[in-house]
Amino acid sequence: MTTLAEGTEAAQATAHSFPGLDPAPRSYQSWVADETIEDYALRYAPASHRRWSPATITHTALGGISFLALEAIGAALTLSWGVQTTVIAVLLASVFIFIVSLPIAYHAARANVDMDLLTRGAGFGYIGSAITSLIYASYTIIFFALEGVIIGQALNMAFGLPLPLGYLLSALVILPVASRGMTAISRFQLITQAAWIGLAILPFLAIAWATEPAVVGQWLASPGPEMSMLSLGAAIGVLCALTLQIGEQVDYLRFLPPPQATTKLRWWGALILAGPGWILIGGTKIIMGSFLAWLAINDGVTPAIAAEPIGMFRHAYEYMFQPVTALILATVYVLIAQIKINVTNAYAGSLAQSNLFLRLARYHPGRLVWLLFHVSVSCALMMMGVFSTLEAVLAIYANLALASLGAIFADLAILKPLHLSPRRIEFRRAYLPDFNPVGCCGMAIGGLVGLALFLGVTGPLAQAWSAPIAFAVSLLVATLLGMFRKGHGYSARTPHDFGHAKSCDCAICSHGYEPRDMVYCTFYERPICSLCCSLEPHCRDFCKRPPIPRPEVVDAQAPSVRLHRVPPRMGQRIWQIVAVFITLMAMLGCLFLAARLLSDRLHEPQLATNFLLGAAPLIGLVAFWIVMAHERRRLTEENLLGALQRLGATQHELAIRQRLAAIGEVSAIVSHELRNPLGTISSSVEVLSRHPGLGPEADEDVQRIRRNITRCSRIIDMLLDFAREGAHETMPVDLKAWLRALISEHPAHGSISLTVPEGMHLRCDPARLQFAICNLLENGWQAAESVVVADHVPRLQLRAMRQGDHCIIEVEDNGPGLPAEIRARAFDPLVTTKPSGVGLGLPLVRRVAQMHGGDAWIQRTGPGGTIMRVSIPEAEG
């Protein structure tokens, strides 16, 4: 990590920053500022908030896998494909889920970030990871709805409560706990853990007590559809959708304390049990659901009731209790288990939606708002009967989920160990590209292949295995792209180093955060927190733009208005319209596909063709409107940025001129008042130095006085230079010979290399230009000497080059570079890095260059050194 980016950031900050622009203070709603509620929804979890033990994290995370949708999935697969196919599919899918989930859990726990922040730095980029956030948010919504339906069924069977009312109650009951974040959730999970485990084991004890041990063998040998690659692939495709459950586990694992704060065994134990180890219990629950459903059907329960968790557990409890007691126990168990999981679903969904809409709208009303949104959408899905289409929904969803996970797995498990991507998980907008082709292309190609196969393009066998194939294609594409790019495209600029500070205040919201959560904003030239950076609407990623060449020369003959036969950016606009049109049509096709799977009345092929063709003109108009509205907004913001830049530059220049005027007024008086006392002191010192009785110590004092007299005289000369007005005398000089003579007078001339083309002539004021170049050489030499590293040899390079009709004189050192806070104000008067400096050297250099019709600026600065440039018009002939 370095203080400044190499070249780009420095050039931008010098030539295109907003020095006079102050950020508007931002305030949040009270619940957004309260991290007990917000729970670092959009940030990494800082050390001050990771106060839970590994055991607490494990209990809390395992409480989130109580969901009875697992038993329902086991029952549904058994009814569709038979027991043998279900058991083998569960075993294979469990191994797959464990392997895929392990690197995700590890990197999230080490970087202390949730699933969204993880994917930003795992190959998707800042905007690209919004797609994975959408997929993950959809997962939490779908399963919240499935679990809510199970609660509604239990309330309906036990108390006759209408299903819509049961759905509403199932959604509202989780709000008091989910709204309070990790603190309340961990306490709730611990309180309910014993009851949940006891009620989950009780029916199997009852079955074992009331039946023969051979019942398990009968279940495994029960007749059903013959197992084939087709049935096995279809079952695995449904189960693979559960892989995204690792995202909910990660939401708790990000609070795991650092490995050095506990023992290695406890840390890894918590990581595995709370992370990929969830499938060990989850897979067991799926098989338990298959067994309970088969047992209920064998005892005469209808398949529809047996497939519902409340029905299968009620029947199991009846092996030990009376029907009424069994119903009460089953209802209590369902309520405890489902509230436990839906608290987790709602919490994880609010985090995912906060991250998603933050990037789409640059607006964050707070996690509580997205929690309510999550609950509302889930209730709508319950009313639509999502439970009755469980297998179809999960089969479609599995293709998209596994395509995204394939790209993530490629980065975390392959590219990072091979050092083909940065090991550090970066999540801050200021340092990330918008899109990283490694993850985005891998997921897009994998998802399209998976959906095409699922639609039956290549036959039923590939259709059944479409989800695993989507994962494999995404993994392969992302890996190949990562190897080809060799780590490029993961970072937009080099992160700023805040040193060893434990906390840093944000210049916008005024709250203090750890440096890991801070960025240095080159738009405002101040440190801001990652959330304020994400919410900033004005900068338009100013810090990540490529440098714009400095206009050293303005052509007076150039017209002020440029006319174009073809509007600028026309090709880009056409491609944007085509891309938006294709995206909208694809989304419309997916919606129609989903409707077709859910309704028997939409299976006519001609109906789909007519529907899509009829919608195409309207979608085209919508795409055109979206692109042009975005273009109008872009142009408006660009104009605003230009006005702000001109305003900031004008204010900055006005402040400098006012300061220079004040210095000029005072300098003449100060110099006159100081010259006479200095002259007297100097004469007295000369007299004292001739006194024969002075010893060695007095001689040292005399030399010290002489050095300080010389320093004071130099400061007076600089003040007088600021005070001088009027024309300066110029004369032609041979630049190469003149610079060679100037270097020969420097004490370190042996360490200064000179590169000047032959025949370069300047018309300049030699005395003033000599002062400017010597000042740059002196600054560069002091910087090069300040590096205390073994084998470091201070060196300077003095170069000259032509640029148009200007001559560029360049001084490069191999020093440590300028700090960001100094670099932005390096040419302001009275700004210096030297303890004994007055901060007038670089302002004088710029003034000398401007007197000659040129300018001075910092071309590059960083750990490798600094390049200073001065431009002077080249003399003709």
TrEMBL record:
It catalyses: ATP + protein L-histidine = ADP + protein N-phospho-L-histidine. Keywords: ATP-binding, Kinase, Membrane, Nucleotide-binding, Phosphoprotein, Transferase, Transmembrane, Transmembrane helix, Two-component regulatory system. GO terms for molecular function: ATP binding; phosphorelay sensor kinase activity. It holds the Pfam family HATPase_c. SMART domains: HATPase_c (SM00387), HisKA (SM00388). It comes from the Bacteria. PROSITE patterns: HIS_KIN. Residues 669-876 form the Histidine kinase domain. Its EC number is 2.7.13.3. The chain crosses the membrane at residues 60-81, 87-109, 121-146, 158-178, 190-209, 229-247, 268-297, 317-336, 368-388, 394-414, 435-458, 464-484, 574-595, 607-627. PANTHER family: PEROXIDE STRESS-ACTIVATED HISTIDINE KINASE MAK3, SENSOR HISTIDINE KINASE. This is histidine kinase. It comes from Paracoccus seriniphilus.
